[in-house]
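Appendix B.2, paired examples.
Example (i):
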Amino acid sequence: MGNMKLKFSEKMSSFLKNSGWLIGERVFQMIFSLVIGAITARYLGPANYGVINYGMSYVVIVGVVCSLGLDSIVIREIISEPKKSGEIMGTVMVMRLVTSIVSIVILFIFIRAIEPNNVVLQWVCLLESISLIFKMYEIIDLWFQSKLKSKYSVIAKCIATFSVGVWKILLVVNNASVEWFALSVTIEAMICFVFIGILYLRNREYKFIFKLSIAKRLIKMSYHLLLASLMVVIYTRIDKIMLGIYMSEESVGIFSAAVAIADLWIFIPLAVINSARPIIIESKSIDKETYEKRITQVYALVIYMGIFASLAISIFAKLGVTILYGKDYIKAVPPLLIIVWGSIFSILGAAREVWIVCENHNKYLKYFAGMGALMNVLLNLLLIKPFGIIGVAIATLISQFVVAIIAPAFFKDVRVSLKHMFNALCLKGVFERK
């Protein structure tokens, strides 16, 4: 019993340190990126800032396909079979490389087809999409997460963030065109790839090896998560695409400013979720009571962080938009007041994914996200013309609520997750000692 308590204490210590590194990274990135992002947005103006975000929406959707929905599964596999880490990671990296190259080509052809006269958008999408190749570093990042050693990837990401910040300042000083700013995404991914790769080589336990049998097994396990992730990114990104199609690139820029401020707090719960994931996965096979308590604790953190952050952002919305982005973006305030509350439901969904993977209920994720995507598209079609950006914000909020709360109620196997969330909201069992 004493050994178990000691082991748990060591795990919690590693968890807290790992979370500290992740939160520290996000604080640095938030402050630095917020300042640089605001300077960039002011320089580009709503229209060009909209082009950057419009193109990035397509790239993010394609990027989900490249990720293959494997994040939680890779961590679980590495924890359960540590001696096969090299084979698992090597296989996934080859899979990511192939899908990235194919996706870049398909995306460029697609943009050329739907926007044949918008050469600037074509170049922006191409330059941003090249980042998909270098984002293979995310696989190594998952290995660091599984070992609760995120400090290594944090160091690399902070170096990349700082470097790209300096790059953007130089672009502003030299009156660079919007295409050069689009290249920033790829430069940041490339720097992360190089530094995280170097740090992994200094800490690695096994060499990368590709195995077709592992690739087949991982695809079989992950396609539910892939479809779910694709649906999620559609209902979270389709708003900008539809704004670009039905309104203007300027409206995309204004809405993007609102989203950037609304998401300021998200880095904290995401860091907690990423650090808690290995502990929750491991506790599943050890003790059911502890396992369910950990899940409820994560939900509670997400809910109350979200309420506090959303209230704070709502109170200072107008002041924040004016200071950061200037009067050209003042129309971002009304949608900001709406979408900031949807962020809570979005993060609850991310937290529940850990439980979904542990319980092997992956197949339901695509149904949740599919319902959200369908709801978002339909609401956007109904609301975007009469209400503009505000209509898009309402559609986003309702869709996120549907995915997090309404959709799981339709499926018996996952309905218990709503009970965990309700217990978390009431703080039931969150502070009890086992």
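Example (ii):
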Amino acid sequence: MGQSTRMPVTAMLGASVFCSGVTFAATMPYGAIVGIETLGLSNEHYAAMVSISSLVGALVTMFIGYASDRLPDRRILVLMAAVAGATGMGLVYFGRSQMAFIVAITVIWPFGFAMFSQNFAYVRVYYNARAPERAHFMITALRTVFSVAWVIVPPLAGYIAALYSVFDVFLLSALAYLACGVIFAAMMTDPATRIAAAPIAARDATGMRGFLPTPIIAGLVGILIINIAMRLVGLAMPLSIVTRLGGTVGDVGIYAGIAAALEIPFMLMWGYLGRWLTREAIIIGNGLLLGVYILLVSQARSVMDVFLLQAINGIAAAALLSVTISYMQDAIKGRVGLSTSLMDVVGISATLAGAAVFGVLSAGGDYQLLLVAAAGFAVVGGLVMLAGNTRQLRMAPAD
């Protein structure tokens, strides 16, 4: 692209990704509280609502990803997703009823959920066009900005919910969606930020129509299994801290804060090391390292042990939350939008599978067993990816 931009695009994209992080970090801990405790939904109805929302979200993100590779302007989809997200969160805030909550979460919000992946799809194609040598690193760097939101926003949202109303966190999310929409609306006034979809090649690099290469399939399956492990840890670790280790809800907040804070420098580290290591090697190695961490934390004897082990978790989680983005964006050659939507599909599938495993293994309240199972998932995921990518490990990094 020879046309120069008159806007600070990197700063604007960073602000957009941060706002995307706010939309999740402000509301995710409070969905069940609003649905069950405040609005009176039963546990079964809330679980069914979340499952429906997840499935609708998967379909929507795949459709949007498919469409984004054919639209003349990718900015439009991010703007539309921002408007949908603001509408859904705003409906919860202003409606404050079971019907408003159900409609917002299952019908409207799944369209807003796609803002995260399409944000990163735009980042990737923008830097592919402007500075291809920096594209992978910028994905990692901007993913750290998303993590910053998770460090800052949950305490703020908790303060707002405690001082005012739990519904107010949904207003905070709606405002973050609107801010992202304003950023992309402003960018649409600058023709230099318009990124059109490239012509779609009839065949991928393997020369086979309609099929992903075996290494990519193995990689995606491995990442899915590793994500199941991460979901299980997210469900089991807070409960283990409170029940088995005698910790408090405050300890859970400290644990989450340490984990999120450590991800930030390590994400930048992995972005830098990506110059010498392939993405496959980074993901495989850190999938196995995650398994080691989970096994160690399952044997923790105190809350302090959990805190100290976050140093290992930070290294592994930073790679698995950032490097996997650029890996999946290259899964379908020439289809960045559709490939990026795989992040949402993998995340949703891992959440559903993790919830099923959690339901089976936690029936007796044995969260230690659940953590051991999670460690097994992480190791198996790394080995699955390794089995299909032995040749890729001997190649030079894509960057």
